[in-house]
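Please review this one:
***
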Amino acid sequence: MPILYLSPSTQEWNPYITGTGSEEYYMNLVADAMIPYLKANTIAYKRNTPDMTAASSIRDSNAGYYDFHLALHSNAAPESSAGQARGIIGFYYPTSTKGKRGQSYCANNCGKFIPCPAR
C-alpha cells in the first residue's frame, strides 16, 4: 500500500488578499478535502500539523518511509493579476525519476478534484 506524507503549508502569518484566512488555513482545507480520496483509494498517509514549521515537517517526513511527500502551497501574484492566476506547479528533486513521475501525475490530475472556478 502506498504511503504519502501530506504537508499543507504552515504559513499562518501569510494572509490571503481576501483577508478571510491564511495560506495555512486554505491549504489545510485542501488537505482535508483530499483525505476521503486517499482513504477510498487505500492510500495511507501521515499529515503534518498546523503547529509544525516547514523545517519540522521536513524532518518528520525524512524520519519516516514515505513513497511521496506532497507539500501543499499557494503562490502569491501581483495585485494587478489578483484572481487571474490559475493552475498547478510542481517541483521534484532533479535526479528523482519517481519524484518527476509523481509531480507530473499531480500536476496533470489535481484539477479533476480541486475545482478551479471560471474567470
Q: What stands out?
A: The two ends are 39 Å apart (CA to CA).
